[in-house]
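Minutes, project check-in
Item: structure for the 274-residue chain
Input as provided by the requester:
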Amino acid sequence: MPELPEVETIANGVDRRVRGDTIVSVWFSSYKEPFKTPAAQMATTLAGLRIDRVHRVGKHIVVDLKAKSDSRLRTQWIVHLGMTGRLLVSSADVPPAPHTHAVVSLASGRELRFVDARRFGRLALHTLEGGVFAGPGHEPLTVSAADFAALFRGRKLSIKAALLNQSLLQGVGNIYADESLFRAGIRPTRMTGRLPRERLDRLRRALRTVLKSAIRAGGSSVSDYVDADGVRGFFQIQHRVYGREGEPCLVCGTPILRVVLAGRSTHFCPRCQS
């Protein structure tokens, strides 16, 4: 599943290409799984609106939409990529890829296409009665040291499971939890509530560093992920533990171990992480 750096990369790429463009029409496939809002309602609402901004909230891509003659935010279109979803900007004369479930035709002649082979992704409209779309948890790139420590205080679960809890930190997934814990020197099985403040501060700094480095590298392409132009990311070549079971640790040479925590494969160095 695309995590924070991949979603950030896609959102930034889409924003650069379609910001200010106007939606002319929208086509949706007949499959119901990708749509949290009925397809007909989305098509009617989106047509004629101007794309003001495309940005990331957690693991969601958020498209802010306004009327062409109005500066007020009208609605937000929310795209969750699920396991295999892609959001691509394409010329209208390029044939749609298999498993395309949404085609947003723009006044510029380009199209914004949602492609998802497994149909685990979701498309929805967010109304503004309760405010703008905010997501369930804290933003890892901006959370303060005090708030970060408070999230984990007294919790009786492993630190790996806590990092994956989207109601605590939104956007962090399996890859970047493993990589951050390695860089912080913390074993993923450690109980969250027993970690001292100094180690949590170190983890926060490591998490921010890893996420920012991954964004600069365009994300990690370990499966189906590509950016808005269909280009793969490069951060996977910087992975120190994720996906390296049995290979020597790049720091001490000890073989990397893999266990299952919170239902997810978890990779760590038994010597460097304690």
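Outcome recorded: The chain has two domains: 4-126, 145-268.
No further action items on this chain.
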